[in-house]
């Protein structure tokens, strides 16, 4: 018999799938790494497991403790499913732009959810960073994984995501495209792919190019943190989990482009994924087009891997709602997809 003893043992080992429709006509091979195959439905299961196990080993998290974390939902799910097995309580702090669907999911896993305003500065006492700091200090046995600064976030990607991509592409990956939130995924995965390709080729710095995708307005692409609606990516400060020396370049993507591509991925590729996935795919396709303009032969040999961090079920009332898209000016009033409104 083959079975896991707990769902948390099934984290990682996600598949690559080629994007054929949205990448049609491009010379490069574009492969998506589909992180919704993780048991909690997102890439964040990887860091949750590693951060908890490291905190147990260091004594920061003790039996019966409470995990307090600011999370847009996905990290919370990962932490909650590992915490359940180990008997920890979870209190999660979410900004109010996070969809109700996502908050309900956290509650369903047994976590307590505290909601804070999105449009305040990180140092403001009402910000989700400040509120989580206060709760972690006040609650006895409280421990804050602090995904924005925890080195075990990028380390989990160095140990799992990076090696999986190298193995599944037989070492042919030439470009990695990742949306940047805490920066943990791009830092750990990108660093691994650079290190391993440097070792194999003897080429300093390796031959894998690492490209960050960022919502226009966020700090990574030179903005000031101006609000954008895509969830889970972009920042208004520089997290310690992000090593800016890893990406070779950052591509800024607007909400409109991200959401349009997110809907296309569902309709054309059968990939019902979140908005940060659409954003990363826009960046990957823009990269593929540019490679082709610069050097068509090299573009034909390129294997671009783009990470799709989560599934789309948590965004049905937003990105996949014609009305919401129209209200925010992302879809013309007469451009609604009638079949999305209940016709088969
Ligand atoms: N997309 C989504 C939906 C996320 O929740 C996150 C995590 N904040 C990311 C992308 C970015 O990942 P990272 O924090 O590793 O940069």
UniProtKB/TrEMBL annotation:
| Originating species | Actinotalea ferrariae CF5-4
State the similarity comment: Belongs to the cysteine synthase/cystathionine beta-synthase family.
Instruction: Tell me the Gene Ontology biological-process terms attached to this UniProt entry.
Output: cysteine biosynthetic process from serine; cysteine biosynthetic process via cystathionine
Substrates-to-products reaction catalysed: L-homocysteine + L-serine = L,L-cystathionine + H2O
Full protein segment contained here: 1 to 344 of 485
Task: Specify the protein name.
Answer: Cystathionine beta-synthase
List, in alphabetical order, the Gene Ontology terms for molecular function in this entry. cystathionine beta-synthase activity; transferase activity, transferring alkyl or aryl (other than methyl) groups
Q: Which UniProt keywords apply?
A: CBS domain, Lyase, Pyridoxal phosphate
Q: Give the top-rank taxon of the lineage listed in the UniProt record for this protein.
A: Bacteria
Q: Which cofactors does it use?
A: pyridoxal 5'-phosphate
Q: Name one GO cellular component term.
A: cytoplasm
Recorded metabolic or biological pathway in which this protein acts: Amino-acid biosynthesis; L-cysteine biosynthesis; L-cysteine from L-homocysteine and L-serine: step 1/2
What's its EC? Answer: 4.2.1.22
């Amino acid at each position: 018999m083959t079975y896991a003893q707990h769902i948390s043992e099934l984290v990682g080992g996600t598949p690559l799938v080629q994007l054929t429709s949205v990448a049609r006509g491009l010379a490069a091979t574009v492969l998506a790494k589909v992180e919704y195959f993780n048991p909690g439905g997102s890439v964040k299961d990887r860091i949750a497991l590693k951060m908890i196990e490291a905190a147990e080993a260091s004594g920061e998290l003790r039996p019966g403790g409470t995990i307090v974390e600011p999370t847009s939902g996905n990290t919370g799910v990962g932490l909650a499913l590992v915490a359940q097995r180990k008997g920890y309580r979870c209190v999660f702090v979410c900004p109010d732009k996070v969809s109700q669907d996502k908050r309900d999911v956290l509650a369903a896993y047994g976590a307590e959810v505290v909601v804070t305003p999105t449009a305040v500065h990180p140092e403001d006492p009402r910000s989700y960073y400040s509120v989580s700091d206060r709760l972690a200090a006040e609650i006895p046995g409280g421990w804050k994984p602090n995904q924005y600064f925890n080195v075990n976030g990028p380390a989990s990607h160095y140990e799992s995501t990076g090696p999986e991509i190298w193995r599944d592409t037989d070492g042919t990956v030439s470009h990695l495209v990742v949306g940047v939130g805490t920066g943990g995924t791009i830092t750990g995965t990108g660093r691994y792919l650079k290190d391993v390709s440097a070792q194999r080729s003897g080429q300093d710095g390796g031959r894998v190019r690492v490209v960050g995708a960022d919502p226009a307005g966020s700090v990574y692409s030179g903005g000031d943190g101006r609000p954008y609606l895509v969830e889970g990516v972009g920042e208004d400060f520089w997290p310690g989990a992000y090593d800016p020396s890893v990406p070779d370049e950052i591509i800024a993507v607007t909400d409109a482009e991200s959401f349009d591509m997110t809907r296309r991925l569902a309709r054309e590729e059968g990939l019902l994924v979140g908005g940060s996935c659409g954003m990363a795919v826009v960046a990957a396709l823009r990269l593929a087009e540019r490679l082709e303009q610069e050097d068509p032969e090299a573009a034909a040999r390129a294997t671009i891997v783009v990470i799709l961090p989560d599934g789309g079920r948590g965004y049905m009332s937003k990105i996949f709602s014609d009305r919401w898209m129209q209200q925010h000016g992302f879809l013309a009033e007469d451009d609604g997809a009638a079949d999305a409104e209940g016709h088969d």
